[in-house]
TrEMBL record:
This is Uncharacterized protein. It comes from the Bacteria.
Amino acid sequence: MTKPYLIADILLRRGLPENVVKEITRLAEKEIIWLKQKWSLDELER
């Protein structure tokens, strides 16, 4: 995982709004959605 993805992952999990995370990390909305989908898969495996 590259640095912007790791930062976005941490910030989103801590409850920051998506628009703030996008501004900080410069990730596209589809990348933010991908991170959230990844969480869903991780939770299903537990």
